[in-house]
């Protein structure tokens, strides 16, 4: 019936199996599945359904799997489930049924289909769907092969997430897949994106860099940190004011990077040649530092010292002298 695509006949047989449950006689108790040895008789049926290109085949296979009552770990059945899963993933609109199949036959052979679905969603900009699927897969596929596959997918995901300005998505990916090299994947796309960054993006960018740092990125004694590199990229993109707007909150959230960020901020300030604009930016920077650190008096003094040092680096010696005087008067 499957080969002839006689779906009404297939449905009649599935209904009978669902009624009989324990064996192939109508007298069996319903609900237990066929079990051994009768369940093995339906393996060829499943294989035919998996190979069929007809949409109806997916539905019948999903109905048949729970009726088998066979133990987990059979290679042939798991391989057939994998083939069926790839068919569901390729269909594009049947992702929900892929999850149903996994519940009916939870096996490692389904992982490639889930990865295929996530890659397709990435290409189509379905970032929320990727995060949901990744969360599910992380919970249910935990062997070494799954770990390697998810790390490779996560690297691709964070790159695409940055370029789409989906910074919260990237932070979520890094939390689900805490793979240290992921942080390095941010550097190039952030550099490309610098010219398109806006003030409203900074909060989520800083949260992303904070998560990247938790994975071991941007240590002060190592290569340039992600925050330092981003500020330099912004200056090159002729967005020095935005680099300085980034400095105050980044200095508070990425405290271990403060010396490097200060040096980058000095370069950004030096790139602003008009004195009124530079004075306004310095005033805004002080206000932002004061606001961000108002609950921490020792840190507040350090923030003001940073601002004075920033002016020194930028050659604004008279203003720096006033900052130092004010700092010591406050103490």
In short:
Helix content is 69%, strand content 0%. With 331 residues, the chain is an all-alpha fold.
What can you see in these coordinates?
The protein is mostly helical. The protein contains 17 helices and no strands. Helix 4 packs antiparallel against helix 5. The protein is elongated and about 85 Å long.
Q: Which labels suit this protein?
A:
17 helices, elongated, mainly alpha, 69% helix, 331 residues
For the sheet with most strands, the description reads: none
Element string (H = helix, E = strand): HHHHHHHHHHHHHHHHH
Instruction: Enumerate the spans where pLDDT stays under 50 for 5 or more consecutive residues.
Output: 21-33, 217-221
Question: How many DSSP H or I helices?
Answer: 17
Mean pLDDT: 77
Question: What portion of the residues fall into strands of 2 or more residues?
Answer: under 5%
Going by helix content, strand content and strand pairing, the class is mainly alpha
Residue share in helices?
55-70%
DSSP strand count: 0
CA-based shape: elongated
Kindly report how far apart the N and C termini lie: 88 Å
Rg from C-alpha positions? Answer: 29 Å
